[in-house]
Amino acid sequence: MGNADSPNPGLADVVTIDGPSGAGKGTVAGLLAARLGWHLLDSGALYRVVGVVAERRGVDLADADALADMARGLDIAFTESVTDDAVSVAVVVDGTDETSAIRAAEAEDPASRVAAVTDVRTVLGDVQRSFRRPPGLVADGRDMGTVVFPDARLKIFLTASVGVRAERRMRQLAADRRRLKDQHAGDSLRAPRGDSAAALTAVRARTEARDQRDRTRDVSPLVPATDAVTIDSTALSIDSVMTEVMALVRKRGLDR
Length: 256
Ligand code: C5P
Fold this sequence. Notes:
The structure is a single chain. The protein is an alpha/beta fold. It has one domain: P-loop containing nucleotide triphosphate hydrolases (Rossmann fold, 3-Layer(aba) Sandwich), CATH 3.40.50. Helices cover 47% and strands 17% of the residues. It contains 10 helices and 8 strands. The chain has a 5-stranded parallel β-sheet with strand order 2-6-1-7-8. α2 packs across α5 (108-114). The chain is globular and about 50 Å long. The termini are close together. 39% of the residues are buried. Mean pLDDT is 91; it is low at 186-192. The site of cytidine-5'-monophosphate has 14 residues, from α2, α5 and α9.
């Protein structure tokens, strides 16, 4: 439960990690959740689920009512596990494991489209708040510190140059593809193959388009909370980012 310094002593403490795609939020959030022994909320996974299922069912991504109804009816379950000192989540939707489907490159665009729909955000906001459980929650996304958990004890805004973020995203997609191939299911991903400049340019263009949509939408746009600490990871290793994050965590007494 929240410690005595918490503005909400009855509620579990929250650390939020917001920022644009590819800044390293997911990696940092997973490592931090494992170090603190807290729960993890990957809020982007929820938008990815709604986008992927809507496309599969032929729901119009511009039909706010139909999307919100569909989102309300989904049974979404996260299963946490610890691998390589980091918490990761498997995502089961209506009884089917959709973890690979929502991590695919194809899921990015529909996710950021449905994320611009106010009623979808209202439905998913309630789901996100239900993740707040003792001993604490590390939540990563775009509006965790600004809208969903405004009373978070520590808010981090993690950013990096668009070039570096595109390179990281490309490496992540390649790793996902290798993992899927190992599971004999690798042919469904449209991620660019190889390390060619053209592939990187394509990932960069997609990253910029998604950033633009996330930053300029009317509802919960991607902006740092006024009380967030910004960390620019462009020239930092994950270890260096974690050193900075852990210093902030200790300063706020959250590692007790
Ligand atoms: O973080 P991830 O890349 O999985 O997020 C997918 C999309 O979901 C983002 O591009 C963004 O449009 C949306 N999103 C959001 N608010 C969040 C998390 C994700 O709008 N809290």
